[in-house]
## 1
Amino acid sequence: MEGNRLKGSPFCVRSANLSSAKLAGSAPTSVNTTAKLILVLLLWSVSGWLLLGTGALAHMAQHVRHTLTEKRRRFSAERSIGQYLASHAVRKLQIGAGTNHLPGWLNTDIEPDKDEVYLDASGPYPIPSESIDYIFAEQLIEHLGFEQGLEMLKEWRRILRGHGTIRIATPNLLTLVGLFRDESAEAKRYAQQDIAFNNLSLLPTAPSAVLNMQMHRFGHQFLYDPETLSRALTSVGFRSIRTTPVGRSDDPALDGIDSHGKVVGEELNRYVTMVYEASK
Ligand SMILES: C[S@@+](CC[C@H](N)C(=O)[O-])C[C@H]1O[C@@H](n2cnc3c(N)ncnc32)[C@H](O)[C@@H]1O
């Protein structure tokens, strides 16, 4: 009823006009929409390529800058090393020196400060064979993986003169593991001091906190026990392998040069550190 009434009414005529207008305009609208879609897609892909292009260019520029900086750093290191070798009859090379600037030594580090020379301990070294009398690395070898450490020791043997000596100070893994059994007051003091010095959580047991820290923090890669270090030294051809107390050596050139105690505390350093010397 209602529908029939409306049919003859002006509402019905209007709605009929509206729908015919919609029908008449439907083809051009869909063409417009398709064109717009294509345009958007085109713009999107062009801007994508542009972005990719500028990204690749920026990446290339960064790579070139990095390579140039590396080359400059190596060149300047080679010059400093050459100057040191030319001006010293007895040549003493410290690797991973940190803040320990030893007078008369060629003090090097992978992150050198202004008084040090750039040298990556893992090698190869821009240093002639059989040209160095002493090599010293305190708290460094544990920052390299085991294989890298072997490569480093091979380089040391190559550059060392026949009568030369090397000195390595590094945390003793056996001492660290021993904390689980060591009931001595010294062991307890060491663990407490190390926990306080490094802000370790008090939740794990002291030996567990200290051992895990030594394994995973500071960029440590491989910790040595005495037997493993001796085998590594022997395997690359070092002889006369011997231990010395921290800070002490029978060789005057190596006596009193250890400095890590100044950083972490003398007692802490003495407890955990083992020192090895060796010759060719
Ligand atoms: C724990 S600090 C020891 C610093 C100093 N020898 C001492 O005993 O106080 C380790 C040092 O080794 C350096 N180092 C780490 N990896 C190295 C690498 N591959 N070659 C040379 N130095 C490196 C670090 O930059 C840092 O100065």
## 2
Amino acid sequence: MQPAGNHHQIIDSEEARIAQAAADAAANLTAEQIDASKFYIKQRYERYTEENHAVWRELYDRRWTVLEQQASNVFLRGIRTLNMTRERVPKLDGEGGINTFLKPLTGWQSRPVPGYLPQKAFFACLSRREFPTTITVRPREQMDYLPEPDIFHDVFGHVPLHADPVFADFLQTYGRAALLCNDEEHIKRLGRLFWFTVEFGLIREDSRLKIYGSGLISSHAESDYALNSPKPDRRPFDLERVCETDFEIDHFQPIYYVLESFEQLRDAMNEYATRVLGISKAKTLAA
Ligand SMILES: [Fe+2]
């Protein structure tokens, strides 16, 4: 549970407490017993202040000016398709909400959560094609660096890729595999896979390096470093190698993994789920 600060005024504390308790309790349940719908809260849209919208606008404008050069075409297509706009914090549900555009494309939905979800609860959401989404807006003092996610990181940074059918399948398979695997070592390996792809992944498109991980999409400073600095080690994506690579937080990454396509990621994940985790494709993709 995040501490209540002035940027958390949009969350109802009692509703959040109940949802967070349900998510915490999921750690002791089997995959079949978990009901992810209990982890979600409402996005009380009317509680966003003009300051929240202004912060969103600033973040959006600053990133957008360079993303057309820096970001994967798949990300750019997603952000346009979802009708995300610079003017206001995005509404998830209801008329004009991003879910109304997203659902017909891939079946994914962005669902508001009260704060940080424990691993098992998080995996359960992904396995249902639901993305647990932070709905708070960062305070202006933390424009450049925020240790925890906010709506800009989660919705601007993550959700556009969910509009792509290939990435959408990958992420659900990832969630199912992680949910069904009860082996701490494999969970750790899958955590590294998430970090080096969903959060900090690079992809080669038209012979140029592009960013697609949300940690890069939503970070002005690190995206430039990831693409242009001579310092980091940019390695070709290899799932086994990624799963063996420790990651570091709190500073720019010393290592990035570069995909050749999202099909490469989807296929490697399917193969890993089947071969290593023993999760059949039918079971993996069962709704
Ligand atoms: Fe993230």
